[in-house]
Design a protein that fits this description.
Elements lengths: L5 E6 L10 H9 L2 E6 L6 H10 L4 E5 L6 H20 L3 E6 L9 H10 L3 E5 L4 H9 L10 E5 L6 H4 L4 E5 L5 H10 L6 E5 L7 E3 L13 E5 L7
Parallel strand pairs: 1-4, 1-5, 2-3, 2-4, 6-7
Antiparallel strand pairs: 7-10, 8-9, 8-10
Helix pairs in contact: 3-4
Protein backbone atom coordinates (compact mmCIF):
# COMPACT_ATOMS: atom_id res chain seq x y z
CA UNK A 1 0.00 0.00 0.00
CA UNK A 2 1.36 3.42 -0.98
CA UNK A 3 2.12 5.72 1.94
CA UNK A 4 0.10 8.92 1.77
CA UNK A 5 2.04 12.00 0.82
CA UNK A 6 2.21 15.34 2.61
CA UNK A 7 1.62 18.92 1.55
CA UNK A 8 3.85 21.76 2.74
CA UNK A 9 2.71 25.36 2.43
CA UNK A 10 6.08 27.09 2.20
CA UNK A 11 6.58 30.82 2.58
CA UNK A 12 9.29 31.98 0.16
CA UNK A 13 9.63 35.55 1.41
CA UNK A 14 8.87 38.79 -0.43
CA UNK A 15 11.14 38.51 -3.45
CA UNK A 16 14.83 38.16 -2.61
CA UNK A 17 15.91 34.49 -2.98
CA UNK A 18 18.50 35.04 -0.23
CA UNK A 19 15.64 35.51 2.25
CA UNK A 20 14.49 31.90 1.83
CA UNK A 21 14.85 29.90 5.03
CA UNK A 22 17.09 26.83 5.18
CA UNK A 23 14.00 24.71 5.80
CA UNK A 24 12.29 26.11 2.71
CA UNK A 25 15.33 25.28 0.56
CA UNK A 26 15.52 21.75 1.95
CA UNK A 27 11.83 21.06 1.32
CA UNK A 28 12.06 22.46 -2.20
CA UNK A 29 14.97 20.15 -2.94
CA UNK A 30 13.22 17.13 -1.43
CA UNK A 31 9.79 17.73 -2.97
CA UNK A 32 8.36 15.47 -5.65
CA UNK A 33 6.09 18.19 -7.04
CA UNK A 34 6.13 21.99 -6.76
CA UNK A 35 2.72 23.65 -6.70
CA UNK A 36 2.61 27.34 -7.59
CA UNK A 37 -0.24 29.85 -7.61
CA UNK A 38 -1.29 31.21 -10.98
CA UNK A 39 -3.10 34.54 -10.75
CA UNK A 40 -3.95 34.44 -14.44
CA UNK A 41 -1.89 37.51 -15.37
CA UNK A 42 1.29 35.70 -16.41
CA UNK A 43 3.11 36.68 -13.22
CA UNK A 44 4.48 33.81 -11.16
CA UNK A 45 6.74 35.70 -8.78
CA UNK A 46 7.06 32.86 -6.28
CA UNK A 47 8.43 30.55 -8.99
CA UNK A 48 11.12 33.05 -9.95
CA UNK A 49 12.27 33.24 -6.33
CA UNK A 50 12.79 29.47 -6.02
CA UNK A 51 13.86 28.71 -9.59
CA UNK A 52 17.44 27.68 -8.76
CA UNK A 53 16.26 24.97 -6.35
CA UNK A 54 13.48 23.35 -8.39
CA UNK A 55 14.89 23.03 -11.90
CA UNK A 56 13.59 19.86 -13.54
CA UNK A 57 10.90 19.16 -10.93
CA UNK A 58 7.29 18.63 -12.02
CA UNK A 59 5.18 21.76 -11.58
CA UNK A 60 1.50 21.96 -10.74
CA UNK A 61 -0.01 25.30 -11.77
CA UNK A 62 -2.79 26.27 -9.36
CA UNK A 63 -5.37 28.80 -10.64
CA UNK A 64 -5.90 31.49 -7.98
CA UNK A 65 -7.73 34.27 -9.87
CA UNK A 66 -7.66 37.86 -8.62
CA UNK A 67 -11.38 38.18 -7.99
CA UNK A 68 -13.69 38.83 -5.07
CA UNK A 69 -16.41 36.56 -6.45
CA UNK A 70 -16.59 33.94 -3.73
CA UNK A 71 -18.20 31.29 -5.92
CA UNK A 72 -15.35 31.52 -8.43
CA UNK A 73 -12.73 31.36 -5.67
CA UNK A 74 -14.41 28.39 -3.99
CA UNK A 75 -14.55 26.47 -7.26
CA UNK A 76 -10.86 27.12 -7.99
CA UNK A 77 -9.77 26.21 -4.47
CA UNK A 78 -11.80 22.99 -4.61
CA UNK A 79 -10.27 22.03 -7.96
CA UNK A 80 -6.72 22.70 -6.77
CA UNK A 81 -7.32 20.76 -3.55
CA UNK A 82 -8.57 17.78 -5.55
CA UNK A 83 -5.52 17.92 -7.85
CA UNK A 84 -3.14 18.00 -4.90
CA UNK A 85 -5.11 15.29 -3.12
CA UNK A 86 -4.60 13.00 -6.12
CA UNK A 87 -0.83 13.54 -5.85
CA UNK A 88 -0.87 12.88 -2.11
CA UNK A 89 -2.74 9.61 -2.76
CA UNK A 90 0.24 8.61 -4.92
CA UNK A 91 2.57 9.20 -1.97
CA UNK A 92 4.02 12.42 -3.42
CA UNK A 93 5.51 15.19 -1.31
CA UNK A 94 4.05 18.45 -2.59
CA UNK A 95 5.43 21.91 -1.79
CA UNK A 96 3.06 24.79 -2.43
CA UNK A 97 5.06 28.01 -2.66
CA UNK A 98 3.52 31.25 -1.45
CA UNK A 99 4.95 34.75 -1.19
CA UNK A 100 5.90 36.10 2.22
CA UNK A 101 4.56 33.98 5.07
CA UNK A 102 1.69 31.49 4.58
CA UNK A 103 -0.09 32.67 7.75
CA UNK A 104 -0.34 36.37 6.74
CA UNK A 105 -3.09 37.19 4.22
CA UNK A 106 -2.12 34.18 2.14
CA UNK A 107 -4.42 32.61 -0.45
CA UNK A 108 -2.72 29.31 0.38
CA UNK A 109 -4.61 29.08 3.69
CA UNK A 110 -7.89 28.37 1.89
CA UNK A 111 -6.24 25.40 0.23
CA UNK A 112 -4.54 24.31 3.47
CA UNK A 113 -7.86 24.04 5.29
CA UNK A 114 -9.41 22.05 2.46
CA UNK A 115 -6.55 19.55 2.38
CA UNK A 116 -6.79 19.00 6.14
CA UNK A 117 -10.58 18.59 5.92
CA UNK A 118 -10.06 15.93 3.23
CA UNK A 119 -8.02 13.92 5.72
CA UNK A 120 -4.53 14.59 4.34
CA UNK A 121 -1.45 15.84 6.16
CA UNK A 122 -0.46 19.45 5.59
CA UNK A 123 2.07 21.66 7.34
CA UNK A 124 2.81 25.38 7.31
CA UNK A 125 6.41 26.53 6.88
CA UNK A 126 6.99 30.19 7.81
CA UNK A 127 8.72 32.67 5.55
CA UNK A 128 9.96 36.25 5.91
CA UNK A 129 6.85 38.51 5.83
CA UNK A 130 6.97 41.30 3.28
CA UNK A 131 6.39 44.01 5.87
CA UNK A 132 9.39 42.86 7.92
CA UNK A 133 11.55 42.97 4.81
CA UNK A 134 10.17 46.41 3.94
CA UNK A 135 10.97 47.79 7.40
CA UNK A 136 14.50 46.42 7.12
CA UNK A 137 14.84 48.02 3.70
CA UNK A 138 13.72 51.34 5.22
CA UNK A 139 16.26 50.76 8.01
CA UNK A 140 13.62 51.30 10.72
CA UNK A 141 11.90 49.28 13.42
CA UNK A 142 8.28 48.26 13.21
CA UNK A 143 7.71 48.49 16.95
CA UNK A 144 9.77 49.04 20.08
CA UNK A 145 9.18 48.71 23.80
CA UNK A 146 5.44 48.95 24.52
CA UNK A 147 4.51 50.16 21.03
CA UNK A 148 1.76 48.28 19.23
CA UNK A 149 1.76 47.19 15.60
CA UNK A 150 -1.31 46.86 13.39
CA UNK A 151 -1.23 45.05 10.04
CA UNK A 152 -3.98 46.22 7.69
CA UNK A 153 -4.99 45.18 4.16
CA UNK A 154 -5.11 48.44 2.22
CA UNK A 155 -8.28 47.23 0.52
CA UNK A 156 -10.13 47.58 3.83
CA UNK A 157 -13.22 49.72 3.20
CA UNK A 158 -12.95 51.84 6.33
CA UNK A 159 -9.53 53.06 7.49
CA UNK A 160 -10.48 55.68 10.06
CA UNK A 161 -10.63 53.28 13.01
CA UNK A 162 -7.12 52.04 12.16
CA UNK A 163 -5.65 55.50 11.71
CA UNK A 164 -6.98 56.61 15.08
CA UNK A 165 -5.24 53.79 16.94
CA UNK A 166 -2.16 54.44 19.06
CA UNK A 167 -0.10 51.99 17.03
CA UNK A 168 2.40 51.78 14.22
CA UNK A 169 0.65 50.74 11.03
CA UNK A 170 1.49 48.58 8.04
CA UNK A 171 -0.75 48.72 4.97
CA UNK A 172 -0.22 45.71 2.72
CA UNK A 173 -0.91 45.41 -1.02
CA UNK A 174 -1.50 49.13 -1.16
CA UNK A 175 -0.87 49.78 -4.86
CA UNK A 176 -4.46 49.83 -6.09
CA UNK A 177 -5.65 51.74 -3.00
CA UNK A 178 -2.75 54.19 -2.83
CA UNK A 179 -4.78 57.27 -3.72
CA UNK A 180 -7.43 56.56 -1.09
CA UNK A 181 -4.79 55.70 1.50
CA UNK A 182 -2.79 58.88 0.87
CA UNK A 183 -5.91 60.99 1.25
CA UNK A 184 -6.85 59.27 4.52
CA UNK A 185 -3.33 59.70 5.91
CA UNK A 186 -3.32 63.37 4.95
CA UNK A 187 -6.68 63.94 6.65
CA UNK A 188 -5.29 62.43 9.85
CA UNK A 189 -2.03 64.36 9.69
CA UNK A 190 0.03 61.21 9.17
CA UNK A 191 1.64 61.74 5.75
CA UNK A 192 4.93 62.90 7.25
CA UNK A 193 5.13 59.69 9.29
CA UNK A 194 4.54 57.40 6.31
CA UNK A 195 7.07 55.55 4.14
CA UNK A 196 6.62 53.25 1.15
CA UNK A 197 8.35 50.24 -0.38
CA UNK A 198 7.26 48.76 -3.70
CA UNK A 199 8.29 45.28 -4.92
CA UNK A 200 10.51 44.67 -1.89
CA UNK A 201 13.38 42.32 -2.73
CA UNK A 202 12.53 42.16 -6.41
CA UNK A 203 14.57 43.62 -9.30
CA UNK A 204 11.99 46.41 -9.59
CA UNK A 205 12.22 47.37 -5.91
CA UNK A 206 11.71 51.05 -5.08
CA UNK A 207 11.95 52.74 -1.67
CA UNK A 208 10.62 56.08 -0.48
CA UNK A 209 11.50 57.16 3.05
CA UNK A 210 8.77 59.78 2.78
CA UNK A 211 5.48 58.82 1.19
CA UNK A 212 5.06 62.45 0.14
CA UNK A 213 7.91 61.92 -2.35
CA UNK A 214 6.47 58.73 -3.82
CA UNK A 215 4.52 58.60 -7.10
CA UNK A 216 0.74 58.77 -7.05
CA UNK A 217 0.42 55.21 -8.36
CA UNK A 218 2.26 51.97 -7.63
CA UNK A 219 2.11 48.23 -8.24
CA UNK A 220 0.33 45.46 -6.35
CA UNK A 221 3.29 44.60 -4.08
CA UNK A 222 3.38 47.96 -2.31
CA UNK A 223 3.69 48.41 1.44
CA UNK A 224 3.12 51.63 3.37
CA UNK A 225 4.56 51.90 6.88
CA UNK A 226 3.26 54.55 9.27
CA UNK A 227 5.27 55.01 12.47
CA UNK A 228 3.40 56.99 15.10
CA UNK A 229 5.57 56.47 18.18
CA UNK A 230 8.37 58.60 19.55
CA UNK A 231 10.87 56.85 17.22
CA UNK A 232 8.82 57.67 14.13
CA UNK A 233 11.28 60.05 12.55
Amino acid sequence: MTKQGILYGVGVGPGDPELLTLKAVRLLQEADVIAAPDKGNGEQVALRIVDRWIQGKPLLSCPMPMTREQAVLDRCHDEVANSIGALLDQGKTVVFITLGDPTVYSTYLYLHRRILAMGYRAELVPGVPSFCAAAARLNVSLCEGSQRLMIVPASRTELTDCLEQDANLVFMKAGRELGTLRQALAEHGLMKRASMVADCGMPSEAVWEHLEDAPETSGYFTIVVVRQGENAT
